Amino acid sequence: MFARDVPPDVAALSAAETLASAAQLHAQRNRADVELLELALHFADLHPDPATVPGHHRVPGGERGVVYGGPGCPAVAEFAVAEFGAVTGRSTGSAAAYLGQALALRHRLPRIWAQVRSEHATAWKACTIATACLHLSEQAAAIVDAELAGIVDTVTPHRIANIVRAALWRADPAAAQAAAEARARQRGVWPGRTDEHGTTTLYVKAATGDIIRLHATLTQLADALADLGDTDPLDQRRAKAIGILADPDLTRELLTVAQHLTNTPTPARPQPLASAVPRPQAPPPPPCDQAPPGDSQPASTPQAEQTATAEQAATAEQAATAEQAATAEQAPPLEDQPHVDDRCEPRLDAEPGPDDEADRDAPHPSEPAFDERSEPLSAPDHNNTNSGDSGSNSRHINPAEPTTDAGMDAAARRELARKLAAIKQGAHSNHPTSGAGTTDNRTTDGHTGGAESTGRTGRKPARTTTLYVHITDQTLLAGGGITRVERFGPVYAARLQELLGHDQITVKPVIDLNNKISVDAYEIPRRIREHLKLTHPVEQFPYGTAETTHHTDLDHIQPYNFNTTGPPGQTSTTNLTPLRRHSHRVKTHGHWTVHRLDDGALQWTTKHGYTFRVDHTGTHPVADQP
Q: What is the model's pTM?
């Protein structure tokens, strides 16, 4: 049906012959994987812990022995891992993990290793088991080895996790209990990766009471936005409220203005800015733990509907059991899940299907799988803008698809932005918290300025955030296009306004990365460090993956000559390169060499003579190798 470029020998194969060839290649690949594990083990044996080598003298920053496979595995000379990774196309961290898997299979999981060597088990699946057992004691690993040796190719990752957990409990119940309690006490806030729409997911693990209060505050701010004329759905207004909550003065001022608007006697709720057609008001739902009101109770008014407090939400949600809260946290709402007003109680998920793994914990943000976490299956769409409206007419939408609700038009959004800007100006005029804006340092155009003052209240200036935006001259001339924001990735130029928000902004001079900067001193000034960070976002080591930060080592490619007659400008953007500390030590003490090529790339040579070119496109092995 579609024309494809297929080699002639493959194009001539029938379906049966194609399957036979694929099976043969699969078997060959598995044998190659086993051979590579054997070579990794032999390479590790050739590079034992330097402390065990006769005549070895330890120097500061020199090579050490590191145990990569877990308890019971021998230590390996740490610099050897970097060279093994380079010749196999892996980063140093990935190579360390791979050698650890090989050593763990041989020393901790001998039954599984025997199955792998006899080609009765797939090598990569066995490596997965070795990684899962990395934190286990030798006794617990032996239990896993006995239970999984005969079923390596049939067990799923979910079952592996369960077996490992059970083995830990059987081998060391006290340690397992301590680990479980420590994980239960773990708290944190982790931002996810930014998608192509300029949206980032934030993961929060905190005390249930704090989450309830945060959710109630966000809902209260969402209601305040509705009072200003924001007709976007409730969830979208809650998302906007996060940006507002980041500014305490704006939060306080907005809630005060909303309270004033709510207490002002009006015959009906203010009309949305985007439409002059009145919106019918739905009666607020009764509290979840009470029966519907009778005829003797007074009817709810729009004002009462608008001033639903955070305490009401907190009281209702605290009534939910701990089991319900945990269920709601672990899994997203399903498509066939009837909507429940989220201000009354948490949304409970339906029973999982036969192919779902309901009891699998979400990956920890420090694990690689965290970066691959998918978005929730669906999100509720509140047709009514007020958070107290009934959810009976709600439907589920896919967050990846644009909503079909009319929402606010461009004029209404500009009017809402004008109101928020005025409220923020008033907030910072009354409660100045940052040096960027005070009533004593106003410019003629009405904007605030002056970085010296801290305001009449004497409060500490707010912490500032620096955004580095990479933009080309073509994008500037065209007025649109793609830009790159440090730590966020590619962003449409039109989305920069949303990224910056309505905050007080100081535009710094453009940094031209084509300029060459140098000093005569050994110490590296901040302007050179900033220049190198922007030029090389990732360390310039073969297959390096460490992100360049202000704390990354900057290595002098040509060693600095401390002689008073040494050449000037040795500390320069052309003679410095970012390296993580381990890579820096490998270069200094591991017999690796590096020099700068005429085109600006780096050419690295390993201890055993393998050469690699590292440039802005990545790592490339040089053709002529030993």
A: 0.64
